[in-house]
Design a protein that fits this description.
It is a single chain. It is built from 15 helices and 17 strands. The protein is α/β, with parallel strands linked by helices and 432 residues long. It has two domains: 276 residues, UDP-N-acetylmuramoyl-L-alanine:D-glutamate ligase (3-Layer(aba) Sandwich); 142 residues, Protein-Tyrosine Phosphatase, Chain A (Alpha-Beta Complex). It is globular, with a radius of gyration of 22 Å.
C-alpha cells in the first residue's frame, strides 16, 4: 500500500490503525521508540495534571523563547489544526515535516498496532529530536504512568493539579489519580507539584523513587497585590512581575509552577528576569478563559471537568455585572457532566445545549435531562421581569452559538464551554 500524500490522509490512516482510541500501556510504544532511536540530549520538561497543563506549557514556552532558546512544545488535543500539537520555536510544525515523521513511524512499527495518540506522539518526538532544540516541553495526554509521553525520561516533571477526570482509566479518587500522575516523576530529578493539597499517594510515590519533590507552599510560593506579583522559590526570588496575559484565578498558581521548573533547571537553562516578564506578558493560549472582541462579550473555555468548571465559575464571577449569561454547552459522554453543571448552575441564565458528533458525543437532549436532574428546568421571569431561565437544544455548537447571538443583548455575555470540540467549532465559525 502506498503512503498517504497529505497530512489529512495520514491522520485518517492513523485513526484506523487501532480498534480503541485509548489503550493504556507503554510496551508497544516504547518498543517503537527504541526502534526509531528517539532520545534527547537537551533538557526535557514533562507537564502533567488534571487542569492547568496547557497554561503551564504555554508559559514555559513563552519565557524560554524570550530567553533565546530553541524550544519544542508538544500539547494535546488541538483546537483547529493538528499542527498546533507540535510547535517549534513558537510556530506549528509544517504538514511536510509531520508527514515525514509519520512515514518513519509507519515503517518502524511493522505489525505493531498503535493508537492515534501513540502514533502521533512518537512522530512528534522524532521530529523534535531532529530539530536541534535547546529544550523540549511535553504535555502528558492522560494520567501519567501509562501515557505515551511517559516513555521519555524527563529532566524535570511538574504535576499542575490533581482532581477527578478520566476516572474510568485513572481511578475514582484523588489518591488513585495522584498516584498515576506521580509516575511522570524520575529518581533524582526535580518533581514539582502545584496542587495546594497534593494527595498523599503522589508525595509517597515521589519519595519512594527518590525524586527531588518541590511542593507548592513549602518549596515555592507566590504573593502579590492588584498591580504585580512575586515568586519565591528555594533559592530564587523574582519580584515585581506583571500578571500573566492569560486570564483566570489560577494563572498565578500555574505561573509559579512554571517558575519553579525554571529555578530547578537554572544551571542548564538560565533565564533572565526580563525574559520572565516578557514571556508572561506575551503568552497566549486559545480557549482558556479567552474573551473575544466585540459586544456582547463572548468567553471561550474548554473546561470539561468539575474542577475546571469551579475555576471557570470563579472567573465569571470576577468579571463584573452582566444582565444575562447565555451558555453554549456541549460535552463528551465520558465526562462528569452533572458535576460540571452543578458548578456553573448559578452563573448561567440561558442554556443553549449542543449535540456533539462521534461515539463520545452527547446529544443535546441528554444534556437537558442531566440539567433537569440538577433541578435546572425552563423558568418564566419573576414579576420584575428578571431571573428567568430558558433551555434549548440544537444539533451542533455552531447552531447553538448562532441562536445565542440572536438572543443576547449587547450588555449580556455568551459563554462557550464544555469541551475542546465545542470551543473549536465556535472558533472555526468565527474565523470563516
Amino acid at each position: 500500500m502506498s503512503s498517504p500524500q497529505s497530512l489529512t490522509a495520514w491522520l485518517t490512516l492513523i485513526e484506523s490503525l487501532h480498534p480503541k482510541s485509548i489503550e493504556m500501556g507503554l510496551e508497544r510504544v516504547r518498543a517503537i521508540k527504541e526502534k526509531l532511536g528517539v532520545q534527547f540530549s537537551c533538557p526535557v520538561i514533562t507537564v502533567g495534571g488534571t487542569n492547568g497543563k496547557g497554561s503551564t506549557c504555554a508559559m514555559l514556552e513563552a519565557i524560554l523563547l524570550q530567553a533565546g532558546y530553541r524550544v519544542g512544545c508538544y500539547t494535546s488535543p488541538h483546537l483547529l489544526h493538528f499542527n498546533e500539537r507540535a510547535r517549534i520555536n513558537g510556530a506549528p510544525a509544517s504538514d511536510a515535516a509531520l508527514c515525514e515523521q509519520f512515514a518513519a513511524v509507519e515503517a518502524a512499527r511493522g505489525t505493531v498496532s498503535l493508537t492515534y495518540f501513540e502514533f502521533t506522539t512518537l512522530a512528534i518526538l522524532r521530529l523534535f529530536q531532529h530539530e536541534a532544540l535547546d529544550v523540549v516541553i511535553l504535555e502528558v495526554g492522560l494520567g501519567g504512568r501509562l501515557d505515551a509521553v511517559n516513555i521519555v525520561d524527563a529532566d524535570c516533571s511538574i504535576v499542575t493539579s490533581v482532581d477527578l477526570d478520566h476516572m474510568d482509566y485513572l481511578g475514582a479518587t484523588r489518591e488513585q489519580i495522584g498516584w498515576e500522575k506521580a509516575h511522570i516523576y524520575r529518581a533524582g530529578k526535580p518533581a514539582i507539584c502545584c496542587d495546594p493539597a497534593p494527595p498523599s499517594s503522589l508525595v509517597q510515590q515521589a519519595q519512594k523513587i527518590g525524586a527531588d519533590l518541590w511542593l507548592f507552599g513549602r518549596d515555592f510560593n507566590y504573593s502579590g497585590d492588584k498591580q504585580q506579583w512575586n515568586y519565591g522559590g528555594r533559592h530564587q526570588r523574582r519580584h515585581s512581575l506583571a500578571y500573566p496575559a492569560l486570564r483566570g484565578v489560577n494563572q498565578l498558581l500555574n505561573a509559579s509552577g512554571a517558575l519553579a521548573v525554571l529555578e530547578a533547571l537554572q544551571q542548564r537553562l538560565p533565564v533572565s528576569q526580563q525574559a520572565v516578564r516578557q514571556g508572561l506578558a506575551q503568552v497566549e493560549l486559545p480557549g482558556r478563559f479567552q474573551t473575544l472582541a466585540g459586544r456582547p462579550t463572548v468567553i471561550l473555555d474548554v473546561a470539561h471537568n468539575p474542577h475546571a468548571a469551579a475555576v471557570l465559575a470563579q472567573n465569571l464571577d470576577s468579571m463584573g455585572f452582566y444582565a444575562n449569561t447565555h451558555a453554549v454547552f456541549g460535552m463528551l459522554n465520558d465526562k462528569d457532566i452533572g458535576g460540571v453543571v452543578q458548578q456553573l448552575a448559578g452563573a448561567i441564565d440561558h442554556w443553549h445545549l449542543a449535540s456533539l458528533e462521534g461515539p463520545r458525543g452527547t446529544r443535546a437532549e441528554q444534556l437537558q435531562s442531566i440539567l433537569a436532574a440538577q433541578g435546572l428546568v425552563a423558568q418564566a421571569p419573576d414579576k420584575s421581569g428578571l431571573h428567568g431561565r430558558t433551555i434549548q437544544c440544537y444539533d451542533s455548537p455552531a447552531q447553538a452559538f448562532a441562536r445565542a447571538r440572536e438572543c443576547a443583548h449587547e450588555n449580556d455575555r455568551i459563554l462557550v464551554f464544555g469541551s475542546f470540540h465545542t470551543v473549536a467549532e465556535i472558533m472555526a465559525t468565527n474565523k470563516s
